[in-house]
What does this fold into?
Amino acid sequence: PSTGSQSVTGLSNLGNTCYLNCALQCLRSTVLTTYFKDCHYVDEVNERNPLGLKGRMARAYAATLQQMLSGRVSIAPVEVLGIMQKQNAFVAHSQHDAHEALSYVLDMLHEDLNRIIVKPYVERKDSDGRPDAIVAQEAWAGHLRRNSSIIVDLLTGLLRSQLRCLACGFSSVAFDPFTALTLPLPSESTSHTDVVLRWLAPRPPSRFSIACSTTTPVTFGLMRKRLAELAGLCPCSIAFIEMSNAGGLPRVSQGDQK
It folds into this structure.
């Protein structure tokens, strides 16, 4: 592996810790890496923040990141994992969600590096029909009064949400800060089914992959038609036979069955 910021270093699995390894590798690929690599975090550690970890997460992540940038083949993120388990945030040797791990690390890094020593009370005002730009600016200004860190500077945004009363039509708009946004993965519109075609003639079986839509019902009649096109046969010469694992009698599937 090469050295420097372009080094490729793996993270050892310490017992179902692939979720943490995934989160740390993703975080290592952000602009936040330069901040920790150049040790800018040292002057911003907030040990007085009751919501933080007295700087332990910031120092642990910085040490882990330096190892990841060292050019070694692999390292073990024991310091970050130890802090998470000591805080009872994640049970040892259990599987967890990578997004939850990423959110926790970002939250603890933010609180450890929060430049606000004493957080003031900030009243949250209703949108009251005002333009979104004004409401968003007001929400962001209120957030900055209590939160100011490199995480806020680089990795925080506002998410717009709206509630509307179905009875009176009144709506309320809110803007909430986020550091990690969950997005749905696009679903496939087609699926493939592997079919083994056994010939009556003395020849080896043939395997075919039949593409079917996931949005419409698929019947054996449709499968027979697709298989006939692939095999160059007449659909009426193909029969689907269901074999029971329990040793029962084979059953011929009808064309309208799904």
Summary: The first strand starts at residue 10 and ends at 11.
